[in-house]
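Issue: ligand-bound run for magnesium ion - logging full I/O for the record.

Environment: standard queue, default settings, no custom constraints.

Inputs:
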Amino acid sequence: MRHRIIIHFGELTLKGQNRREFVKKLRQNVRRKLQAMGYGPDNGWDVVAIHDRMFVEVPAQHSDDIEQVLQAIAEIPGIAWLTHVHWFSAKEYDIFSPQPELDFLDQLIEKLGQESYRDGASFAVRVKRADKRFAIGSKALEQRLATVLLKNTPWKKVNLKHADQFFYVEISSRGMAVFTNRIKGAGGLPVSSTGRVLTLLSGGFDSPVAAWLMAKRGCNIDLIHFTANHVRANDLESYKVSRIARRLSEIAGKVRLIMVPYTHFDLALMDKGLDYDLMLFRRFMAKVASRVADELHAQALVTGDNLGQVASQTLENIVSMTKSIEYPILRPLLTYDKDEIIALSQKLDLFEVCKEPYKDCCALISNNPKTRTYHDRLQAVEERFFPDYDELIQQTLDERQQITYLFGQRQAEKPRAQAVETTASSEPGDA
Ligand code: ATP
Ligand code: MG
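Outputs:
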């Protein structure tokens, strides 16, 4: 018997011509994710795509790790659902003999029955016989296996139509597949199939969820974060925002986090008594992020903005940030309720790290932010008080640091000039 994970694509099947490309990306993402977990071709793992699904061949020596692998793969965007299949090849088990010897199947169903039993739940056995050379009819086999479960396991309640637990057996010309319930995947589209975005990542709950939503729609996500102070190289990896980036990369593949201290902006603003602080800062973030987006070949910026969530998140302020730059700013959370965002954050295992206190950011944000600002006026203020805005951006970018993850593993940084050149083509690190 062999263990296999079968992956179904969901929306991918609808995508006509692009489908091949999408399947290729998904396969690459699944492979890299497995490799990051230590499961690669060199220790017997293989990921194979056939027309409407994908198989992960699990080597026998790793069969105890399947549960963990299933959970990890289920997070990868582009997967509708997946199952752990026990596979018996027709040759090895002689399932097409006139009187097939099916003890192996009884034993497996009994084992699966023991493992999956829940008090009070009902079950059903479903058999599909695609190859009629198999000598036992599907109804007869369903009855036989249901009897095994009723006799040898705690399962007592059968419910053919609306069972809580299904046991499936599928017989094809190649062999027999046995599996229980499907595991729901993340849905969406494979990362790297729709574009690249740069997310403004704060230390809060919203922006990581916004980045994830974009990854789920197939975007490569890079991140930019503004800190009050320069972060020491030794502290970079344990830094709260880096840990958020690492967790996002476990799902989204290659993720670069660019950290920039905003000390130069702070200095420029000092003593000017400007009461547009917060919006000037947001526009500053947008302008710096635009420059980084140029370098990374990102097509849009993303924020965790949410209409009306805090006093400053008015439509006027959102518009005056939008108008400060040429890149479009996408705001996937704009219309969400806070409890929906928190629920997602919890589901994604981001909640615990996001709720850690974070003092290092946004000391500058005023206690009493302006709720209605307008682009023209802010632009006039900027021209007057920051006559050399380009220089301000350049000084800020000179102090940037970068940390890169690939499916949760830290990558060595390339020298910057070189890094910029190689991002244009989709080279192997680009998941
Ligand atoms: P979040 O929960 O993401 O922190 P928030 O509700 O606290 O969002 P704000 O602090 O007003 O909202 O920030 C709005 C958006 O601006 C954030 O979602 C994020 O995209 C961006 N942002 C805020 N602070 C920073 C920062 N220090 N670095 C990068 N982006 C930031
Ligand atoms: Mg915040």
